[in-house]
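[Q] Does anyone have a clean structure-token version of this?
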Amino acid sequence: MDAEPMRTARLTLEPLAVRHAAEMAGVLGDPALHTFVGGSPDTPEGLRDRYARLVAGPPSGHAESWLNWVIRLGEPGRLVGYVQATVIRDRAVVAWVVGTPWQGRGIAGEAAVALVGRLRERGVTTVVATVHPDHAASAAVARRAGLAPTAGRVDGEVVWRSDGAGRSE
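[A] Here you go.
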């Protein structure tokens, strides 16, 4: 499975490229973005290295696909975040991040809905995300994308899940 461009009413989701690193370093540069996930902002060089690894994909012999998109708001617009999915057969683990200046506008939800829709079109039946239990905005994004919280936890985060088109469990 490959990351292909997607469009929504306001957004263009472009397959991640190394050339996005410099602009994304600015988008992701606010330390507040790391409140729930830990770590600190990457430098443009650090993002270039990371994006090169992501674009290259998983090591040979792995049965998974790494799909990554940057989120562009407007046309031609500026980058405002990203969505990603790790797909193994008919199961995907998804994530989203939108830079702090663009939060609260429904961008992450719109992008996550597009991502889950594309995965469903490609035969993915189970979609999973993990959300920090105190991160209400990210929980709202998961819910908008059709996922529901489960009793499961991964590294203290709540596992959100949807099995089948439009059915959350």
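[Q] Thanks! Anything notable?
[A] The chain has a mean pLDDT of 94.
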